[in-house]
């Protein structure tokens, strides 16, 4: 009997061949797809030079037309506020209807499908459709962002409601309360703080998106930005971009403060 | 003594209130600000009443024109554009890591201990996140000319901020123990990262990459609207020519691809993590 039962030598850092093969495949794909899309090294180098020229033309940002800028920013803000308010109002009942622990499956299923469709279509596509259907302007932007908000918050609302403890619901139901009272006294207290968090987040992202829907003619600063781009007013473009970044920064700081105060 | 005999149940009749007066006033103020903001927005927003009045009718009219979708239009034009969109999303996600990994390493405070560099990297990440992908696409169309190349770069630069931020957070949560052990054994910096940090952040890394790819599939579908390639171009053409049956075909194709991407990502994620 020879002592061949000894363990095979254990490597401290065993090579992970599956991972290496996957990375190799990814590298091959990258090269193949790049050539298919016409993305060659020459083009990138050429693009870098062009990028330098673009930046040089943007450099002193031109704030001369600040009235136009302010007007666009205010309209974006209005779109964001209105879309968030309407979106939240629609999402509240939809969220309850889509929660599988509170509503029967034949209601929750279709409502979930509607929410999924709202979420799947990018808001810019929705904005184009609204612009074509109901004309240029802030109304189309607001409607598009309402759709996007519903897709996002209603889903989160439904998920939050599905996570609640059913004990309170049963207790309130046992007292003979109706549906609205069960919602008000058993469901809302458990989820209200999370709801407020979702709403703040959505207001934040609506603000970001409202600066953009103007590119397709749906109101807000995006229209001004796109017009400036088309007229090669790159210094004004830089000014608009800086203003948008500043606005989003400000909104992020404020919503961060509010969220910290709520906690 | 007298007061107790006077009314023994008086303490029980005390009215309980949940919040202190100061809290109540601040809550009321928050509501007031919210309502004021909405009222201000409604009163000053530039909405044409005639447009609002016939909006439902117009929407219905558009939907009727869209039905039935012109499915014969799908192959080859829409199909090829869809494949191009997926390439843009995937390549953009791959390329974003070229910038996102170094920035995340610089932004993570336990890996790069130089504070000004942390702040600089954070600034870069925030700037990338604040500029929307369509705006990035506009910039890159101006640089590279119209086409898929601009789309890939727009997606990559937009993703850097998101991926870098999440990656930096994952890096900061890593346990310092393995790194210290490796350093004590005399491992160089690269080995310390590869064997001490990478195994810890690997699940988060793949999760972030998949999540971002899912988002990028959605975003790359609209890049064509500003000329950056993909299915957005086909959509834009169809809308500009008022070919509503084709529009609905393209929308259906986008919807199916987005839903499929979500399902695939969820599958892979449950298997990986």
TrEMBL record, chain B:
It is found in: Cell membrane. The chain crosses the membrane at residues 28-45, 86-108, 134-157, 247-265. This is Phosphonate ABC transporter, permease protein PhnE. It is a multi-pass membrane protein. Coiled coil: none annotated. One of its GO terms (cellular component) is plasma membrane. Belongs to the binding-protein-dependent transport system permease family. It comes from Teichococcus oryzae. Residues 82-265 form the ABC transmembrane type-1 domain. The gene is phnE. GO terms for molecular function: ABC-type phosphonate transporter activity. It comes from the Bacteria. Keywords: Cell membrane, Membrane, Transmembrane, Transmembrane helix, Transport. The keyword Oxidoreductase does not apply. It holds the Pfam family BPD_transp_1.
């Amino acid at each position: 009997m020879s002592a061949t039962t000894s363990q095979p030598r254990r490597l401290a850092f065993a090579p992970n061949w599956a991972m290496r093969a996957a990375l190799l495949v990814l590298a091959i794909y990258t090269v193949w797809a790049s050539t298919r899309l016409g993305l060659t090294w020459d083009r990138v180098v050429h693009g870098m030079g062009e990028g330098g020229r673009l930046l040089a033309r943007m450099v002193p940002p031109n704030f001369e037309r600040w009235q136009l800028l302010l007007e666009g920013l205010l309209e974006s803000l209005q779109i964001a506020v209105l879309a968030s308010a309407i979106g939240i109002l629609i999402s509240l009942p939809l969220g309850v209807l889509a929660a599988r622990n509170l509503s029967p499956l034949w209601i929750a299923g279709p409502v979930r499908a509607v929410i999924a469709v709202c979420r799947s279509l990018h808001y810019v596509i929705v904005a184009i459709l609204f612009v074509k259907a109901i004309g240029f302007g802030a109304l189309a932007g607001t409607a598009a962002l309402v759709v996007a908000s519903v897709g996002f918050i209603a889903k989160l609302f439904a998920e939050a409601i599905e996570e609640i403890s059913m004990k309170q619901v049963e207790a309130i139901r046992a007292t003979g309360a109706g549906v609205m009272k069960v919602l008000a006294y058993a469901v809302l207290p458990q989820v209200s703080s999370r709801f407020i968090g979702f709403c703040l987040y959505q207001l934040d992202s609506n603000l970001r998106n409202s600066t953009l829907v103007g590119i397709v003619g749906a109101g807000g600063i995006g229209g001004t930005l796109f017009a400036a781009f088309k007229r090669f007013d790159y210094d004004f473009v830089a000014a608009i971009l800086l203003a948008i970044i500043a606005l989003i920064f400000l909104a992020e700081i404020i919503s961060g403060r509010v969220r910290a105060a709520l906690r | 003594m007298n007061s107790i005999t006077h009314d023994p149940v008086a303490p029980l009749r005390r009215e309980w209130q949940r919040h202190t007066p100061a809290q109540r006033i601040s809550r009321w103020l928050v509501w007031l600000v919210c309502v004021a903001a909405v009222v201000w927005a409604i009163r000053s927003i530039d909405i044409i009443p005639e447009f609002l009045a016939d909006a439902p009718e117009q929407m219905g009219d558009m939907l009727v024109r869209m039905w039935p979708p012109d499915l014969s239009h799908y192959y080859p034009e829409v199909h090829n554009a869809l494949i191009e969109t997926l390439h843009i999303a995937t390549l953009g996600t791959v390329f974003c890591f070229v910038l996102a990994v170094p920035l995340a390493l610089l932004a993570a405070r336990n890996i790069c201990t130089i504070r000004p560099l942390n702040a600089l990297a954070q600034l870069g990440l925030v700037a990338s996140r604040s500029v929307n992908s369509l705006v990035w696409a506009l910039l890159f169309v101006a640089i590279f000319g119209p086409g898929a190349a601009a789309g890939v770069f727009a997606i990559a630069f937009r993703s850097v901020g998101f991926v870098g931020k999440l990656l930096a957070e994952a890096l900061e949560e890593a346990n310092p123990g393995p790194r210290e052990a490796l350093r004590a054994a005399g491992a160089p910096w690269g080995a310390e990262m590869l064997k001490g940090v990478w195994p810890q952040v690997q699940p988060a890394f793949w999760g972030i990459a998949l999540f971002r790819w899912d988002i990028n599939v959605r975003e790359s579908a609209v890049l064509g609207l500003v000329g950056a390639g993909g299915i957005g171009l086909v959509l834009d053409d169809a809308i500009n020519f008022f070919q509503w049956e084709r529009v609905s075909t393209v929308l259906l194709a986008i919807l199916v691809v987005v839903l499929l991407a979500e399902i695939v990502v969820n599958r892979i994620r449950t298997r990986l993590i």
